[in-house]
Amino acid sequence: MWTLKRFLTPYKSAAIIAPLLMVLEVTMDLLQPKLMSSIVDNGVLAGNLPHIVTTGLIMLLVALVGWVGGAGCTLYSSKAAVGYGTDLRQELFDHIQTFSFRNLDTFQEGSLITRLTSDITQMQTFVQMLLRMFIRSPMLIIGSIIMAFTISVKLALILIATVPVLFMILFILIKASYPLFASVQSKLDQVNAVLQENLAGIRVVKAFARARLEKKRFKQSNEDYTSTAVKAWRIVTLNAPVLSLMPNATIVAVLWFGGFQVVGGDIAAGDLIAFINYVTVVLSSLTSIGMMMMSSLAPRCLLPGSTRCYIHSQIFNREPITPGKYSHCRLSGIRTHTNRLPSPHTQAVKWSSETYPSVMTENMHLPVLI
Question: How far is the C-alpha of 131 from the C-alpha of 336, rounded, in Å?
Fold first, then answer.
């Protein structure tokens, strides 16, 4: 991915503005639980209606500012991501056009089609997530943990103990599913290759009555792809229930120990509500990061040997192979005519080669028009 960051350079301004607007949105989101706590403690429990109205209007204003930041972040991140994908796809296509036949023999047509279409689309989506969710979620986690410590240090320790467990679960799931998704991508390349060969040679297939054989080939490739994809996504489906169990268990623990603190007068009821909101934000952000990382495995991203690395190392770094010695055939007996039209007469042209003594043992004479 980082080897292809040069395609994001023309959209540097949009790539910088988008995270800044996301910072604005995250800041507004972190203020909401504190304002809610103020409404509960100083408004509802105290019976102070003007405070409830005033704080509620402030919450609406904060939400509006956050909405502006989120909308602006979406706009600029989409501009940068779409431009990145467009430029990358165009340069990749232009580079493939420079390949010789010997270059193209090293690639499957289906693999090149996959690189130019679905993989670059996935990379474009990943860039947009990188500018939005991968900025939003870490900032929400850090900000919520800081705000949780300002409310209650004892309750914040429960949250601190939960976060490493979630990270460990995510690491195990990603490590188990990555090899399967790499296999899924190769199976998809094979499906595209069989389909492209069938469509390109459809006249030959019909002429030699090979439709049944081609159907069998495609069915086998499709079934291989399906079975491998099912195995990979079975592991991914474990992500949701496991990551849902941990936040719910953490909230139960916070309510249990926080209830005793409220009864003992250590914290206010509104602070406990705000703390639960911060816990929910932290754990939901971790869950969203896990889901994004799991979904990004489909194009083999984020890890060494990924599709992005494949595009750079296997395609962009592949130089066109010149004809080499295969074109070093010497022509003898050729007459050049610069100032007159070609003669309608036929003259023999002698071909000889010093590079193929086993193939060309004597001069070859081909009749041509000169």
Answer: 62
Instruction: Give the 3-state secondary structure percentages of the chain, helix then strand then coil, rounded to 5.
Output: 80, 5, 20
Residue found under tokens 């979904």: 295
Query: Distance between CA 157 and CA 250 in Å, rounded?
Result: 11
196, HSE (Cβ side, Cα atoms, 13 Å): 13
Q: Contact 302/293 with Cβ under 8 angstroms?
A: yes
Q: Is the pTM of this model over 0.85?
A: no
The predicted-structure confidence for 43-78, as pLDDT tens digits, reads as follows 888 888 899 999 999 999 999 999 999 999 999 999
CA–CA gap between residue 230 and residue 86 (Å, rounded) = 31
Q: Give me 38's structure tokens.
A: 């103020």
Q: pLDDT digit string (tens) for 210-258?
A: 888 888 888 888 888 888 888 888 877 777 787 778 888 888 999 899 8
Residues ≥6 apart with Cβ < 8 Å to 35: 55, 58, 59, 62
